[in-house]
Design goal:
By secondary structure, the chain is mainly beta. It is built from three helices and 37 strands. The chain has a domain of about 210 residues: lipopolysaccharide transport protein A fold (Sandwich), CATH 2.60.450.10.
């Protein structure tokens, strides 16, 4: 995917390095149509015209005309339809080539085209220093092969290290992505492309903003640093101190202060380690102090656990799974359990193992499972399928209590408004007069009940005809009748602030 060919290898293939290795050998003039001599500034040279051809080892150079300097310095200036061919198949054309044997500098100018079996470099200005083992182009250049097109204002090649440096307005176009970079270094031997400075990578379904990173072109694996950001479709993005990824398979690993944000669903997931796969079904696994924030409503909901797992099967079917030591918090409702699953399609969350929910003065528990249903981003119903127990703090160590084999609690604006009990329904509630003075304790038992509340105050209870009830005066309530079976007021576990929530 990330395949970059040699840029200035073509220069090496032209046989110029052999000049350095054998500097005692002279460049051979094989033919020309016209030859004349001249001398200027104490320097003698030959003037060559028509079908000029030079040879140096296995390198041939053709031009319309040339100045060939005498004195054993192996220098020449070639002009007009310059062609340089090597036996290996590398070729160069240009308007002119100026070679200085004393400085070992070759200046190639005007419509420069370097070609090999796999790639082509086009530029206007190309210099190569044989003794320093590097060459560079400037004024703009373009490299093309079958899989990519690269342009930059400057380009450097270092022979010994087989590395390249592209600078100033670097653009690499590939059928699957485009890279815009300030600087890009490429190490040919290990196939490593390094992004230096602000860079943008645009793929078909993503874009990357980074200031530091690198990619192994042979394995498609890469690293990003300095709080790089990967932007996905539909408002999703990932940020972290460092990001590892595979451009082919789609997996990503983010380390230290990692974050995935969905601006459409208005959800943020954070942790010290995030692993995800963008292929369908997409998933993200969050570990090391993970938590999620749902800011879709005015009151943000926080969720934390030992492990968070997000799975997106399609645009409708999405699941959030939280494992072990699960807590959630907003200003109106808090809760804890061992594990939790949220199903986006049904707007329903299912709490597992010792679940408990606090809502204002109320505590809801059940055996095994509690289900929470939402409507318009608000909790609409809480279903307790087994051994439900609901406790409300009345103050002065008094607790209204409801229990049943099953229970459904209906909410309005995150406040309890009706509770339906089914199967062995039981209730304890304390009656007070208009002045708030205690009148007595009512205890009722029946097959089912419906309890209506307003602002956390009991309004009425509807019971089946075969229900039974007992009224106890305030001073004659038997101690054994004050609490329903399983009563456990767990207020000490409840986080009152977001700071306490994160300390749990």
């Amino acid at each position: 995917m990330w395949k970059i060919r040699t840029l200035f290898f073509l220069v090496i293939c032209l046989g110029l390095t052999s000049m350095q290795a054998q500097n005692k050998r002279t460049v051979i003039l094989e033919q020309c149509d016209e030859l004349a001599y001249d001398k200027q500034g104490g320097r003698s040279y030959q003037i060559l015209r028509g079908n000029v051809r030079f040879r140096h080892d296995d390198v041939l150079m053709y031009c319309d005309s040339a100045y060939f300097y005498e004195g054993g310095i192996n220098s020449f200036d070639a002009f007009g339809n310059v062609r340089v061919n090597q036996a290996s198949g590398a070729n160069m054309t240009a308007d002119s080539v100026l070679y200085d044997g004393e400085t070992t500098l070759m200046r190639v100018r005007g419509n420069v085209v370097l070609t090999s079996e796999t790639s082509t470099l086009k530029t206007r200005f190309l210099d190569y220093y044989r003794n320093k083992n590097y060459g560079y182009y400037y004024g703009g250049g373009e490299v093309v092969d079958s899989s990519y097109n690269l342009t930059s204002y400057q380009g450097y090649y270092y022979t010994e290290s087989k590395s390249y440096l592209f600078k100033d307005t670097v653009v690499l176009k590939h059928p699957q992505y485009i890279i815009y970079a300030d600087s890009l270094r490429y190490s040919e031997g290990i196939g490593k492309a390094t992004l230096l400075g602000p860079s943008l990578v645009r793929g078909q379904k993503y874009r990357v903003n980074t200031s530091k990173g690198w990619i192994y072109t042979n394995t498609n694996e890469g690293r990003l640093y300095n709080r790089s950001v990967i932007h996905y479709e539909k408002g999703k993005r990932m940020t972290a101190d460092s990001i590892w990824f595979n451009a082919h398979s789609g997996w990503v690993k983010a380390f230290v202060n990692a974050e995935v944000q969905d601006s459409v669903q208005k959800v943020i997931v954070r942790g010290q380690y995030i692993e995800c796969d963008s292929t369908a079904p997409a998933y993200a696994k969050v570990m090391d102090h993970p938590y999620a924030i749902d800011y879709s409503s005015g009151d943000s909901l926080y969720l934390k656990a030992d492990l968070l797992h997000v799975c997106e099967i399609d645009s409708v079917r999405r699941e959030l799974r939280a494992y072990h030591n699960v807590w959630f918090f907003n200003s109106d409702m808090q809760g804890k359990c061992d594990s939790l699953v949220y199903f986006a399609q049904d707007s329903m969350a299912r709490m597992y193992v010792d679940p408990v929910i606090w809502s204002e003065v109320n505590q809801l528990t059940g055996e095994g499972v509690i289900e929470i249903y939402q409507k318009d981003k608000k909790v609409d119903r809480i279903h307790i399928p087994q051994n439900a127990l609901i406790i409300a703090d009345e103050g002065d160590s008094l607790f209204n209590q409801l229990s049943g084999k099953k229970a459904d609690a209906f909410l309005e604006m995150n406040r309890l408004k009706r509770i339906d009990l089914l199967g062995d329904a039981r209730s304890i509630y304390y009656s007070k007069d208009s002045d708030g003075l205690l009148v007595g304790m009512n205890k009722a038992v029946g097959p089912q009940m419906s309890i209506f509340t307003k602002r956390n105050k009991l309004q009425k209870i509807l019971m089946t005809p075969d229900s039974e009830g007992t009224m106890f005066p305030p001073d004659k309530v038997p101690e054994e009748e004050r609490f329903l079976k399983g009563f456990n007021w767990r207020i000490s576990e409840r986080p009152d602030t977001i700071q306490e929530f994160f300390q749990k």
